[in-house]
């Protein structure tokens, strides 16, 4: 089970960022937290949004 609904990746980068931040805030920096998608990446998902998601997770989870 993942922690981000993959449908979010069809929205804008600003919306994606809001979801990423909420998930990371809920994890509260606990060691071992794995950020992942609920059901994987859907075939039609815009590649640029997947790249943005990865960049956001790295940026917002950096210590």
Map the helices and strands.
Layout: H1 13-27, H2 47-61
Q: Would you write up a description of this structure?
A:
This protein is mostly helical and 63 residues long. Helix content is 48%, strand content 0%. The protein has helices at 13-27, 47-61. Helix 1 (13-27) packs parallel to helix 2. The longest helix is centred in the first third of the chain and has 15 residues, at 13-27.
Characterize the quaternary organization of these chains.
Answer: single chain
Helix content: 40-55%
Alpha-beta classification: mainly alpha
Classify the beta-strand content into a percent band: under 5%
- Give the overall shape: globular
The helix count comes to 2
Gyration radius, rounded: 11 Å
* Number of distinct beta strands: 0
Biggest beta-sheet profile: none
Unreliably modeled segments: none
Summed over residues and divided by their number, the pLDDT gives a mean of 91
Topology pattern, helix = H, strand = E: HH
Distance between the termini: 26 Å
Could you list some keywords that capture this structure?
63 residues, 0% strand, 2 helices
The gist of it:
This protein is 48% helix and 0% strand.
């Amino acid at each position: 089970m993942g922690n981000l609904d993959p449908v979010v990746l069809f929205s804008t980068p600003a919306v994606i960022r809001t979801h990423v931040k909420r998930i990371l805030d809920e994890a509260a920096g606990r060691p071992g937290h794995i950020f992942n998608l609920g059901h994987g990446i859907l075939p039609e998902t815009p590649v640029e949004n997947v790249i943005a998601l990865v960049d956001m997770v790295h940026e917002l989870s950096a210590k």
